[in-house]
C-alpha cells in the first residue's frame, strides 16, 4: 500500500466520519440556553443566516475574521454535537473566495426559533434570552457587537436597519448599567439605525469585544488623548 493510497484512504474515512457527525441527532442537553448557544444566536442575527429551503434547514455564518468563524463552529459542536462544514463563496466585488461555516440540521434550526427570529429587517429576541442569567446575556451581546459594532468618536455603535431589535438590545444593555441611545440616518440610504454607547470605558468593562482585532483597537482608541476623533473602527 503506497503512502499516497493510504493518505487517500484515510481521507475518505475522515469524510465519512464527518458526514455521520453532520446527520446524527444533536447531543443530550442541546435544549439548554448556554453562553455558546447565545453566541450562535447573536452571530445568526449579525452576519449569519437562518433559513429553510424546500429540502434543507440551514444555519450559515459568513464573516472575514477567522477567529469568529472558528468560534461559531466550536459553539455549534459544543451545543449540538454536530460538525458544521467550512465552505467558500466567490466575492462579487473582489472576486476572492469568502469562507463561511454552514450546518444543515432541522432540529438545530427549529431549536433556535425558540430564542429569536433572524430576518435582517425585523429580527426579534424572545423571552428566554431576556430571562437568561447575565453571563448568557453578556455572551450574546458581545458576539453581536463583534459582528455589527464599531468604535466611533462619539462612542461604541451597533448598527441595524431594525430599530425594534435595537430597542431590545438597549433593554439588555441597561441591565448592565450601560446607557445608550438610538439615532437614525446612517448608511448610504440613510435607512440604518445606530445604537450609541458614549461611555467606551463602561462598555469595555461590562461587555467588551470578544474579537481580538476589535478589542485591541478599542483599547488603543481609549488610550488616545483625542477620544473625540472621527476615526471609525469596524
Walkthrough of the structure:
With about 230 residues, this protein is an alpha+beta fold. It has one domain (about 25-225): Roll (Endonuclease I-creI). Helices cover about 45% and strands about 20% of the residues. It has nine helices and ten strands. The strands form three sheets. Strands 1-2-4-3 form a four-stranded antiparallel beta sheet. The chain has a four-stranded antiparallel beta sheet with strand order 7-8-10-9. Helix 2 packs across helix 3 (about 65-80). The longest helix is centred in the first third of the chain and has 21 residues, at about 5-25. It is globular, with a radius of gyration of 20 Å. It starts with a helix and ends in an 11-residue tail after the last helix. The model is unreliable at about 5-10, about 15-20 and about 225-234 (pLDDT under 50).
